Amino acid sequence: MTPPSGKKAFYIPTLAVIGVGLIGGSLARALKRGRHVGRVVGAGRSLASLQKARRLGVIDVMSASPAQAAQGADVVVVATPVGATEYILQEIAPALGETAVVTDVGSVKSMVCEMARDALGAAVRRFVPGHPVAGKEHSGVDASHAELFVGHRVALTPLRETDEDARKTVRRMWRAAGARVTTMPAAEHDRVLALTSHLPHVLAYAMVELFADTTRGGVLSGLGGVENTAPALYGDMAAGGFYDFTRTASSDPEMWRDICVTNRAQILRQLQAFSVRTERIAQLISDGDLHALERLFTAARDTRAKVGERRPARPRPTLLFPPKSAS
Amino acid sequence: MTPPSGKKAFYIPTLAVIGVGLIGGSLARALKRGRHVGRVVGAGRSLASLQKARRLGVIDVMSASPAQAAQGADVVVVATPVGATEYILQEIAPALGETAVVTDVGSVKSMVCEMARDALGAAVRRFVPGHPVAGKEHSGVDASHAELFVGHRVALTPLRETDEDARKTVRRMWRAAGARVTTMPAAEHDRVLALTSHLPHVLAYAMVELFADTTRGGVLSGLGGVENTAPALYGDMAAGGFYDFTRTASSDPEMWRDICVTNRAQILRQLQAFSVRTERIAQLISDGDLHALERLFTAARDTRAKVGERRPARPRPTLLFPPKSAS
């Protein structure tokens, strides 16, 4: 594959993707479709997944290890759960070329910055911590697609040591995949995401656990005269809110386990703040305070609508990536 | 409009809808489309809404009051927030014909049963409490459509006094609208719904309130160097889970205020049970217990998938309501 001729288009001759799942796979697909990459080398824990990725055309070459994948790569993307990041950075450090740029896609950034300093040594200057914020309730390379990032935000949280050139390369890469890129401090990222993403996930998991405990305990199974229809009934009743509310609980457990522990302080702080709100609402319900409840619900509905308005419309993907006739 | 000829199809000569919003409007539309109703008479608080409903062809006649609408109606559907139900039942009681069947659509049923006994007197025998469980984050007659109930569950919670004929009429009406109908005790309904619907709504409202407080308090507004992009940023970051999680917080505040207060005991019980779960997860996060967190998240993901499987697939609406060529 050759770069588009006659243009100063963004182009990565060799891209290494460590962890070819939903995120790594979708990035590779997007860059391939836009002809922004020559060769994609993949590495990962599961041979079966790597083989599938190659069959699907997401990667061109399978590597036996992260280090082998990193060797000769112009850009290395670490797309594993956050808990594996430090190990992978340690593994690839000796194999990295002098100009190789390294980035990650983890949902937590402060801890990743610390890991990178420890693991990469001087090469930390070419490390650009990143986080694409896109819906992720599905996982695995099967779910990957070239348009996953179109119109979505990618946060870059460079370290003090990060080279400006490296940051620009990663920014261009994500823009080539259709994303909007913002640079912000890692600590700020982790505070915002604890509220907008990590807390909703934790609460959704808790809600499903409560649902499972309650149905198992028979509270819902003793419906007089309708025992036979009860299982279907739970599912139908879940249309009343449970489904929307718990969509995030379908996310990858290992990824979320790692997020919870690596962004521990911020998540615990938000959980605490959340429980103050639910206790206040419980008090209003207990008091039967119709006016206060209606005020609160109305304000919440309006806030959500406003946040929705602020959210930039996703551009039509087909306009971003017109099929190119030139090779 | 005449009933379909030559068949013993279900047919309501005159249907009164008190409260022509999303639910009442969608029911009227479904019955009209299937030619299961002759004339639809609408009543409601807002003249503008009623006029809109008539313009949209959802109702045929506007009534000045619930009592006037009920007069001469074969079936009366009370489709207001639960808090208005008792008043409306009191108003229509003297106007009801001897064979008129009355039903409601409230999300809480025990309290509605009490209200009906108090308000309807002997006519309570023709009252069938009902609850269509369908997604309702939109509201108003504008959002109503004939297919809202297709494949969704409707729970009927007849009183001891309820006539079997009346229950059958209401069951046939909802089936004609494409719904699956289940009969269950009111207390059981309120326990199930507190978990599958009321709790998720309350938590979503609490989440949005926390989001609003946090952004207002400036915690998210001090992003170094990116102040100008901050508002758009909140919206983008909300793609990380906040949007899915809070979809239910767009629901009608008055409706949910009423639900919270009329199903108070069950909701408070579920809020308490939920906070036990979140406290346990907070402890696991605080301990950094990766194994326990992964186990819990995996179990939750599997539970949600199982509930999803149990949920009957929604039949294709176009197959349920083939356009009829005969008049």
Tags for this model:
homodimer; 327 residues; alpha/beta; six-stranded parallel β-sheet; elongated; disordered C terminus
Termini separation of chain A comes to 8 Å
Give the strand order of the largest sheet of chain A, numbering strands 1, 2, ... along the chain.
3-2-1-4-5-6
Could you estimate the helical fraction of the residues of chain A in percent? 40-55%
Note the beta-strand portion of chain A: 5-15%
Q: Number of DSSP strands of chain A?
A: 9
Arithmetic mean pLDDT of chain A: 87
Q: Low-confidence parts of chain A lasting 5 or more residues at pLDDT below 50?
A: 218-229, 312-327
Structural class call of chain A reads: alpha/beta
Summarize the helix and strand pattern of chain A as letters. Answer: EHEHEHEHEHEEEHEHHHHHHH
Radius of gyration of chain A: 23 Å
The greatest interface here is: A-B, 110 and 110 residues
Multimeric status of the protein: homodimer
Instruction: Based on Cα principal axes, name the global outline of chain A.
Output: elongated
Number of helices of chain A: 13
Report the major sheet of chain A.
Answer: 6 strands, parallel
Structural notes for this entry:
2 copies of one chain form a homodimer. Chain A has helices at 22-33, 47-55, 66-70, 85-92, 110-120, 164-176, 186-216, 230-237, 242-245, 253-262, 264-287, 290-310, 317-320; strands spanning 12-18, 37-43, 61-62, 75-78, 101-104, 127-128, 130-133, 153-156, 180-183. In chain A, helix 4 (85-92) links the parallel strand 4 (75-78) and strand 5 (101-104). With 327 residues, the first copy, chain A, is of the alpha/beta class. A 6-stranded parallel sheet of chain A has the order 3-2-1-4-5-6, with helices on both faces. In chain A, strands 7-8-9 form a 3-stranded mixed sheet, covered by helices on one side. Helices cover 49% and strands 12% of the residues of chain A. At the A-B interface, strand 9, helix 7, helix 8, helix 9 and helix 10 of A face strand 9, helix 7, helix 8, helix 9 and helix 10 of B.
